[in-house]
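Severity: low
Component: inverse-folding endpoint
Summary: output formatting inconsistent between runs
Steps to reproduce: submit the following structure tokens with default settings.
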């Protein structure tokens, strides 16, 4: 006995979700499928109901058009084909029909009548011992015994995935788009020419089935490439749905508006205010930025929890206090904030929060919290870009951009985002605003960045600007930084005499003005310069002073550089064992900081040690691994004379130990390792993944090829960052793949995935 509304279009994907729902309903009598509008809850519920064995008692009750609580029971009675008198109880009638036989009741779209639906379900479950209930809602019913199953987006390519034509069918979201597009315009298909655009379009639509279907409906007028260009206004683009769908599903705007209308006034306020964040936000940030009229800071957490319960915000699995909002939801909130005339106010609060945090990093950089701060800014890089885009683009705010970029100097150096730092400084300076000290320091930093990438002409130009501004206001701090900048530029250019003179001058001036942030760097430069001049004792004294200063402060960045150089000096002195120990100590610190340029430098130093020991194959592999890391560093210092000279000596020796073909083979192997595996090799451990293409996990049917690659790496115990490094993808993309794997396999932990992979390999 069934009462099912059959769909006119084929159901795409969701094989794993169907298995999950079946498994969940086998152990729980009430399961609620949750998700934002257009997530595919209804189609999943109907498909599950259709998969019930022939002859099963299955009823589907659509509640989307039921807006009054007292009509819920009557809607169920009508769907079941019952006839009752006005005085009869709908619950009694349904309970009498179901009685004690096995049955499935699907209540679709409960969100607007949640309390009434919850009451009905509880009553029926108590009176019908073999009844199972599957509900769909934008939020949970909130009753005992309910198991909530969040319906995830369909699989789509990540922002860093390069998608070829042969890859498209692996993604359920892409398959849905292609199927619906072909139905709208017979003859449309994916080709080599449009495959990349289709992949990017589906990824940008975040795998939301409604968005994918609405985009497919536009295919008669727009190509995928043009749709991509118009996605900034996705609500206008995705505004023409199918005539046989409910009004709330005929456009993306209608669907999201339905969710908005179901929110309380405070939930609407928070939704709108959260839209000023990009890429996610922390709890403390939300409490500061979003508090204001109608919403106190102390109320933000509870209201945020409500938005999570309504599938409008998700918590980042990798960080308990970091949250995310789909771009679709964010853009809607931004529109509401603008309509209320409050966008600029909350944008400014967002800006102030991150400006203040950047100033804190500038002060605390030489302390023990470097790694914590670096992770914070990596996680909030999209928010940082929003701040810098606004400030650097407006003359009156450009000085703020200068201060932020300079305060985050350590962040730019460690992440290798040197070209981005340069871009923001140059854009902000182009307005000619800001104080003399601000502009002088900015030109000094630009000279330093130019020296790092080996651009001596640009470095000289910015040094000249710096000199002129310092001459205009010869403040003690500016004169100290002027000397420091000249020391750094000379150092990277290989002029060790000039670098030593300027570093000693800077050291004295920093001590005079009480600035400690660059003292350790000056000591390190001094030590390296003495060493290059053959003044070993003076070099050792300076390096030891640097190490003592950084150890006392709990600092890692400069300390690791000092250890790196001490290791280089030990190698030059012929003490290869000590050199290796020092480099491995530096490697540990670089790994903690995830310092890309630093890791590359240490790997090259270890490669040089391997060359000196006569191990050409190991040296070539480490040189290849370092080259791969350098490729991710913008404005890479790899070509700076000082660094290049160290590398060239070791690489030439390695080439002399091997035939050319053997060297290139080992070098390519190193390039393919990924950072985590290169570090294992550097420590004398055999890389777990091996060279060449990533292996695929066995025993994990239903995953895409990329997900099987990630599963295999989970089986090796790799972290999200290590997976990202190995596959050359962003950490957020890696995290998304891990979440998809856990969901598709019905598992709750990475350890369970590893165990599943291990069993699969054992069988094979």
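Observed output (run 2 of 3):
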């Amino acid at each position: 006995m069934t009462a099912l509304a059959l769909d006119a279009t084929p159901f795409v994907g969701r094989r794993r979700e169907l298995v999950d729902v079946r498994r969940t309903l086998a152990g729980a009598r009430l399961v609620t499928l949750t998700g934002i509008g257009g997530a595919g809850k209804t189609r999943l519920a109907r498909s599950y109901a259709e998969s019930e064995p022939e002859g099963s008692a299955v009823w589907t009750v659509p509640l989307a058009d039921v807006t009054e609580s007292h009509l819920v029971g009557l809607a169920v009675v009508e769907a079941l084909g019952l006839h009752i008198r006005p005085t009869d109880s709908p619950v009694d009638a349904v309970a009498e029909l179901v009685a004690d036989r096995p049955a499935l009741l699907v209540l679709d779209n409960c969100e607007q009548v949640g309390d009434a639906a919850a009451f009905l379900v509880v009553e029926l479950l108590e009176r019908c011992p073999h009844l199972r209930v599957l509900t769909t809602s934008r939020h949970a019913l909130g009753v005992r015994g309910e198991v909530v199953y969040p319906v995830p987006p369909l699989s789509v390519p990540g922002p860093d995935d390069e998608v070829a034509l042969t890859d498209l069918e692996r993604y359920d979201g892409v398959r849905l788009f292609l199927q619906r597009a072909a139905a709208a315009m017979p003859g449309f298909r994916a080709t080599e020419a449009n495959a990349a655009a289709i992949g990017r379009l589906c990824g940008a639509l975040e795998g939301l089935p409604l968005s994918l279907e609405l985009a497919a409906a536009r295919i008669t007028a727009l190509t995928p490439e043009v749709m991509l260009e118009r996605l900034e206004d996705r609500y206008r683009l995705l505004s023409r749905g199918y005539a046989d769908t409910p009004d709330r599903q005929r456009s993306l705007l209608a669907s999201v508006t339905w969710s908005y209308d179901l929110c309380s006034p405070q939930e609407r306020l928070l939704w709108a205010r959260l839209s000023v964040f990009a890429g996610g936000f922390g709890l403390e940030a939300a409490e500061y930025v979003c508090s204001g009229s109608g919403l106190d800071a102390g109320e933000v957490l509870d209201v945020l929890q409500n938005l999570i319960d309504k599938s409008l915000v998700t918590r980042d699995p990798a960080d308990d206090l970091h949250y995310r909002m789909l771009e679709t939801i964010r853009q809607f909130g931004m529109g509401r904030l603008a309509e209320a005339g409050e966008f600029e106010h909350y944008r400014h609060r967002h800006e102030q929060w991150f400006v203040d945090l950047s100033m804190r990093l500038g002060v605390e950089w030489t302390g023990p919290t470097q790694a914590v701060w670096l992770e914070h800014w990596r996680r909030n890089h999209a928010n940082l870009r929003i701040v810098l885009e606004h400030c650097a683009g407006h003359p009156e705010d450009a000085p703020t951009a200068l201060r932020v970029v300079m305060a985050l100097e350590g962040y730019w150096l460690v992440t290798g985002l040197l070209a981005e730092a340069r871009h923001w400084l140059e854009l902000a300076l182009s307005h000619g605003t800001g104080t003399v000290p601000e502009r002088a320091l900015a030109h000094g930093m630009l000279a330093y960045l130019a020296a790092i990438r080996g651009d001596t002409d640009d470095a000289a130009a910015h040094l000249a600007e710096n000199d002129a501004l310092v001459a205009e206001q010869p403040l003690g701090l500016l004169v100290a930084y002027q000397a420091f900048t000249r020391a750094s530029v000379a150092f990277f250019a290989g002029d060790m005499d000039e670098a030593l003179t300027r570093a000693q001058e800077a050291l004295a001036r920093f001590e005079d003005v009480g600035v400690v942030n660059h003292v350790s760097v000056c000591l390190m430069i001094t030590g390296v310069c003495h060493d290059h001049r053959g003044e070993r004792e003076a070099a050792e004294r300076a390096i030891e002073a640097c190490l003592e200063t950084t150890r006392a402060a709990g600092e890692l960045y400069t300390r690791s550089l000092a250890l790196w150089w001490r290791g280089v000096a030990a190698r030059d002195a012929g003490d290869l064992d000590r050199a290796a120990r020092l480099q491995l100590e530096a490697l540990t610190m670089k790994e903690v900081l995830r310092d890309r340029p630093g890791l590359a430098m240490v790997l090259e130093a270890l490669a040089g040690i391997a060359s000196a020991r006569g191990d050409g194959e190991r040296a070539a592999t480490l040189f290849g691994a370092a080259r791969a890391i350098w490729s991710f560093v913008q404005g890479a210092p790899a070509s700076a004379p000082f660094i290049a000279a160290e590398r060239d000596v070791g690489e030439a020796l390695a080439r002399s130990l091997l035939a050319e073909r053997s060297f290139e083979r080992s070098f390519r192997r190193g390039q393919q390792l990924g950072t985590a595996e290169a570090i294992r090799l550097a420590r004398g451990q055999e890389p777990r993944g091996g060279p060449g293409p990533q292996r695929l996990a066995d025993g994990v049917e239903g995953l895409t090829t990329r997900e099987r690659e990630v599963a295999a790496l989970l089986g090796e115990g790799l972290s999200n960052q290590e997976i990202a490094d190995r596959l050359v993808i962003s950490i957020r993309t890696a995290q998304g793949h891990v979440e998809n794997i856990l969901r598709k396999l019905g598992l709750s932990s990475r350890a369970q995935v590893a165990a599943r992979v291990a069993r699969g390999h054992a069988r094979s």
